[in-house]
Amino acid sequence: MPHKVNYEDYDYGDYYEYEDYDDYDYDVEDNGEAPTPASESKQETSKPRVWSCAICTYDNEEGISVCDICGVLRTPLVNNNSKTAGGICKDSGASIMAKSLFASLPPRTPKKAVVIQRQNDGSLMEEGNNCHKLGNTKGKFHEFHEAFSSHSRSKFNIAPFKFDVPSPDDLVSNGLHSSKTGSKGNFLDLKSSRVSSSVSEKNGSVTTRSSAKTSDIANALMPKDKQDSMDERNSLKNEVRASSRISDSSSLVMAKDRLGTIDEGNRSNHCTVDDSISSSVDGTESSSHTGNLTSNMKNMSLTAKSGNSTNVSARKTNSHTQYKPEKWMLPDKKGDRMTQLNLAIVGHVDSGKSTLSGRLLFLLGRITQKQMHKYEKEAKLQGKGSFAYAWALDESAEERERGITMTVAVAYFDSKNYHVVVLDSPGHKDFVPNMISGATQSDAAILVIDASVGSFEVGMNTAKGLTREHAQLIRSFGVDQLIVAVNKMDAVQYSKDRFDSIKVQLGTFLRSCGFKDASLTWIPLSALENQNLVTAPDDGRLLSWYKGPCLLDAIDSLRPPPREFSKPQLMPICDVLKSQHGQVSACGKLEAGALRSGLKVLVLPSGEVGTVHSIERDSQSCSIARAGDNIAVSLQGIDVSRVMSGGVLCHPDFPVAIATHLELKVLVLDFAPPILIGSQLECHIHHAKEAARIVKITSLLDTKTGKVTKKSPRCLTAKQSAIVEVALQEPVCVEEFSNCRALGRAFLRSSGRTIAVGIVTRIIEDQQ
Amino acid sequence: MRIVRKDLIPNGPGSVKMIPVDSDDLWFAYNLVAAGDSVLAVTVRKVVRQTKSGGKDAERVKLKLKIKVEALDYDKEGSALRISGKNILENEHVKIGAFHSLEIELHRPFVLTKDVWDSVALDTLHQASDSAATADLAVVLMQEGLANIFLVGRSMTITRSRIETSIPRKHGPAVARYESALNKFFDSVLHAFLKHVDFNVVRCAVIASPGFTKDQFHRYLLLEAERRQLRPIIANKSRIVIVHTSSGYKHSLREVLDASNVMNLIKETKAAQEVKVLKEFFNMLSNDPTRACYGPKHVEVAHERMAVQTLLITDDLFRNFEIATRKKYVDLVNSVKDSGGTAHIFSSMHVSGEQLGQLTGVAAILRFPLPDLEDIEM
């Protein structure tokens, strides 16, 4: 088609994907539950099935339960479509497909259009054809109208579903009940002139993939003029249906198109979905006196009604580009409050992480003198005087008794520039899983090194030392700013030589992990003797050679990480608390979007919707939480057992994927045992951990260039980079790394050590 | 398994009458019986008879049937083996050629007739009848918030219970909640423990976990036992062993069986040997990858060059319904043994066998390096 030239690029590129949809349609039709639309879409590729009317012997479409000519009921009745008395299954088709899309929308729309449309059909179908024919006639129409090119573009995009592109709704709204070519031409002209411009604009935005622009256009689309608005809404609604169909089917063929390339055509359609939804919501009142429009609205409610069952498994793949954040979600320019900074404190066991954190909290007034006194007394009583500061964070009896941190402790303090959330992680080998699940949310990290002779070397030891493992993990959490706190300098008399030799040894390793020299800060300090923590050191031995910043200054000089304010809400649940009143609180870092009380959120993987009751930050309630905040969200209307740590809170319309089968791009760490097909591992993804097994080693990659060097190797050994497929025992919430970084990182562990880190490149749908 | 009567020629035809006595024996039976064999057992069949008045009368009749095996179905949890096939023993109620499913149950004798009793089948039979090598071990494998209870038998591992709860992080003043959640978790594990661990059957119970969860649970177990006067636990205090593992997932069971204090208890058993051999294989693979190989193709090539020192193979492969395939693997095992190597047949019901199964089911440690194996397509 000559008028489509502009869009050929991606139309062709995505062609094979439609075949998927086609496949889907066949399946559905075979099941006998998805009626006409399927057969329509099928029309291009195969001959639709027909049934013969008992009275007039006319060959009717499979999906229709009443003869098109004489109106006699089909016997036996196959499609029990209660809604479609007229026997036109188009709308029930729409309702099926709308299931996923409209599941969470307030009900609108009706069944009337069905009947009217039936009339249209009757008048149109001299040859005794049914509704899909209508689509066809229209299809020809489009070719008459150059101005309509963009619209037919969108039609081409959704080729298998063209049944409703120019949809009878248009006819209805324009009052063209007995549609003749001329009059239809008029209305199409009218519409196309408007729609084409908007659609083509949209295309432009889609190609640039700028979501912001799309939403701008959406605003631009918001009509003032009634007639215009009606037309636009109609046309948009067509696309709503078309795209809802696509999203529906794409969810089912997710396996195939999960490749992270929901075709751009879809994307543009999705955009229109959202736009039209918002526009119709806004404009409903003002223009509802237009009778035919209301019928359209009602039509929507029909679809919404049938789609109310929230089917978790049949998830749709909404692309995030369509999401339009509300105003309150975006951060205030004035900066009413300081940015939160999630700071993980990591390092080898007994390097003084908790003591350092405790000391910082005490110096910054987060722990009162009285409390501190109490800790000191208790610690002395247990014969662990030096652990007094650590006790501020190690609160459980078990931890205090053993003198080690077991789970990640969360504490808060304010520096000059930030609200700092301290994630004090355990350093013991057995608790690395806890460290991973607790500290994945960090934006920056302090790597604590024990400077005392022998201890640093043990920490760097390849077999037992955790300094290396922690540094590699922190890097693969996505942290690129690191403060290396060389602790216990008092034990080496604040020797510059010691500090420098540590710096040289560790620096080489950190560089090999991918930390840049510029984002590393080296600070000698002593947590126990309070040197160089919040103020410049006063010990002459350190003062004599160290001129750099103190720890607190170094924290202040960290750059705030970029936040995804304008994406849909997404919060991996790190921790679940149950209050006495049976209320559930989910704790974690809000990775994207914003939350405020009253908002509905979807809890995955249980798939239930709850309402945000209140939000707490550092035990103080706050009204709005934005991306990057570490918060506790108390939820209403959901049972405690349905909220698990490792799950995710997200926008009901933008659920994250739940999968058991993933394709990962991994880097095997040093000294890891070989990874074979069938190797059993533990897989950590954000706060979730699950037993996993390597299903397939797809290819070996060159670590430098990322090119495939070998297909299906026998095994993976240390320092290799590869694409592997893993199967998880239980499903986890996960996203492809390109979509969501926080949910797209994976860590593979086996026999107590981290053997590989990587990212999720593809979510593989189970073949069942 | 009790062998009542044995009448067979090695590598020739014969029949064996046996009585399965524990659930492991059904597993052995499952491995012994192959398609094409015939099985004679007492069974119950619903027989429909025409009465004189012309009506129909159904009656359940206990009778002895001999069937030619067509399909096998093993139910691990329910301890049952169903064998279906065509009847070959003329009977007043059942015609020859009529289909029937025999259910082999514990303590019910059955007679298995095979055309060929190959070495692997004889081996299985020998193992099944050797009651000395039992290793019944109860393992509580846990980590904070997750616990699995396993029973490790002679030839299989059964997951009895899986408990999963969410345990909150310590949280400022709410640290009490962490403790209470942990206690609640221990309580549910204790319940499952009492329900599934019978000290009359198991030799010992193992509590395994990373970190200190195992010690915490052990303490909790003993305290609760004292408080609630749980006789079985108090009496068997000494039979509870604590082992360190790296995680609470099922595959860490390997580490449990590998731990020295458990190893001593189950030294002679198959499970322990399997774990040891598999570990050897992995060590070889990481230290000298050219001296270890896996996959049928690679192993076959290695065997042709007489390189196979130790052969690791799962019983899954022998259960193949194609007689030719089974024969191929039996021959492989025999010829490895003949050429001075050792062959270990792994039970696919154990963790180690499961893992080997995922590695295509067959692997080998080689006598000398074969670097060119790498280049052969798998």
Automatic annotation (TrEMBL), chain A:
UniProt-recorded Gene Ontology molecular function terms: GTP binding; GTPase activity; zinc ion binding
Entry-linked InterPro entries: EFTu-like_2, GTP-eEF1A_C, P-loop_NTPase, T_Tr_GTP-bd_dom, TRAFAC_GTPase_members, Transl_B-barrel_sf, Transl_elong_EF1A/Init_IF2_C, Znf_RanBP2
Composition bias, Basic and acidic residues: 223-242
Stretches assigned to the Tr-type G domain: 338-563
Start-end of Polar residues biased regions: 201-217, 268-321
Annotated GO biological process: translation
GO annotation, cellular component aspect: cytoplasm
Known role: This protein promotes the GTP-dependent binding of aminoacyl-tRNA to the A-site of ribosomes during protein biosynthesis.
Pfam families found in the cross-reference section: GTP-eEF1A_C, GTP_EFTU, GTP_EFTU_D2
Keyword terms, alphabetized: Cytoplasm, GTP-binding, Metal-binding, Methylation, Nucleotide-binding, Zinc, Zinc-finger
Compartment(s) of residence: Cytoplasm
Signal peptide (residue range): none
Family in the record: Belongs to the TRAFAC class translation factor GTPase superfamily. Classic translation factor GTPase family. EF-Tu/EF-1A subfamily.
Region annotation Disordered: where it falls in the sequence: 194-249, 263-321
Name of the protein in question: Tr-type G domain-containing protein
Main location as per UniProt: cytoplasm
From TrEMBL, chain B:
Subcellular location: Cytoplasm; Nucleus
A Gene Ontology cellular-component term: cytoplasm
Source species, domain of life: Eukaryota
GO biological process, one term: RNA surveillance
Every eRF1/Pelota-like N-terminal domain range: 1-130
GO molecular function, one term: metal ion binding
Pfam families linked to this entry: eRF1_2, eRF1_3, Pelota_N
Cofactor(s) of this protein: a divalent metal cation
Annotated keywords: Cytoplasm, Metal-binding, Nucleus
Function: Component of the Pelota-HBS1L complex, a complex that recognizes stalled ribosomes and triggers the No-Go Decay (NGD) pathway. In the Pelota-HBS1L complex, pelo recognizes ribosomes stalled at the 3' end of an mRNA and engages stalled ribosomes by destabilizing mRNA in the mRNA channel. Following ribosome-binding, the Pelota-HBS1L complex promotes the disassembly of stalled ribosomes, followed by degradation of damaged mRNAs as part of the NGD pathway.
Family: Belongs to the eukaryotic release factor 1 family. Pelota subfamily.
Descriptive protein name: Protein pelota homolog
Source organism of the structure: Citrus x changshan-huyou
